[in-house]
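Lecture notes, continued. The same structure-token format from the folding unit now serves as the input rather than the output. Read the line below as a description of shape only.
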């Protein structure tokens, strides 16, 4: 096993939004909002700052809109704005235009363990106000803190919230204009990472190309599943078109942690950081007859594949197809950079 994964895992510093901060309209923006104590800041800290879930119990309430830059590459490049729970977007004095204009996705967090009637009322007022300003915004609802509920209770809460939220949109005759996506989430398992993965993927214009490339890879190499995963957050920015099994995603995500932990101890280092090695790879054989295979795509992106052990005999074929995939992804990155600077060629 060799690795060049970054040892200083983390994103840019958090800054309060004010007039002194330049807002880049070319970078996709995600607004994280919802009632107080719904878990918004905890989500951001766990996913993007690697805070242990138990440590989020000591977080102070958010009093201002906090901006967090996530800018690793052309694919993983966006901003997250964490809004305080008492923010009223219907307030005429609120600069709602500045907040919603240019926002790619709005994530509304609901505490599943509290009385969510008031939360749903605020959800309706928030999404309708956001839609008035920015009709292209995507609306995502995280039904959060479901770790304290039984499986039956989770489904009941999800069904009730979906019926009530969509019912209000139906009464306002907005069901054809505003579409809400719902996710059951918790910071104590991988559900929050999977939900964020699906949100981020909608902001990546190259996603269909990446999915097609991964479909070709698993077909030619007879793999079960393949993920392109952001090393720092464990968010998968793309996967093949077959359904995602949560357990498989958890295994692939945990494999990255294993590689990082081992490489931080035994990997080659250069001036205090793990040196760059384009040949980074790792193989883990599981006791159920399957193999996890990891290859580095670039310093912040890894390909993690799930393969049946009897299909993992032709290493040369797999390595060759990986190099083809890596070169294709590099071209996707280059095209993205050119389009970002306004030059298609």
């Amino acid at each position: 096993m060799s690795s060049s994964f970054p040892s200083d895992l983390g994103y840019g510093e958090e800054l309060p939004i004010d007039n002194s901060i330049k807002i880049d309209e070319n970078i996709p923006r995600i607004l994280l909002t919802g009632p107080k104590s719904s878990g918004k800041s905890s989500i951001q800290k766990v996913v993007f700052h690697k805070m242990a879930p138990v440590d989020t119990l000591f977080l102070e309430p958010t009093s201002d809109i906090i901006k967090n830059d996530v800018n690793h590459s052309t694919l993983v490049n966006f901003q997250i704005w964490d809004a305080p729970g008492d923010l009223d977007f219907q307030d005429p004095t609120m600069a709602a235009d500045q907040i919603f204009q240019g926002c790619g996705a709005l994530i509304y967090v609901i505490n599943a363990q509290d009385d969510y009637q008031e939360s749903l009322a605020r959800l309706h007022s928030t999404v309708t106000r956001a839609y008035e300003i920015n009709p292209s915004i995507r609306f995502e609802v995280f039904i959060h803190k479901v770790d304290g509920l039984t499986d039956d209770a989770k489904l009941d809460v999800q069904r009730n919230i979906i019926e009530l939220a969509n019912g209000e949109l139906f009464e306002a005759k907005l069901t054809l204009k505003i579409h809400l996506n719902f996710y059951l989430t918790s910071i104590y398992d991988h559900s929050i990472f999977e939900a964020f993965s699906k949100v981020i993927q909608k902001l990546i214009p190259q996603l269909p190309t990446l999915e097609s490339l991964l479909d070709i890879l698993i077909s030619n190499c007879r793999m079960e599943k393949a993920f392109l995963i952001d090393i720092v957050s464990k968010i998968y920015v793309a996967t093949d078109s077959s359904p995602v099994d949560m357990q498989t995603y958890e295994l692939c995500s945990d494999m990255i942690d294993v590689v990082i932990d081992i490489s931080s101890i035994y990997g080659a280092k250069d001036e205090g950081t793990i040196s760059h090695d384009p040949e980074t790879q790792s193989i883990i054989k599981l006791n159920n007859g399957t193999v996890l295979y990891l290859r580095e795509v670039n310093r912040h992106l890894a390909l993690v594949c799930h393969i049946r052990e009897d299909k993992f005999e032709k290493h040369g074929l797999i390595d060759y197809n990986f190099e083809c995939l890596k070169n294709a992804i590099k071209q996707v990155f280059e095209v993205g950079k050119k389009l970002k600077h306004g030059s298609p060629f």
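Point for the exam: The longest strand covers residues 103-111.
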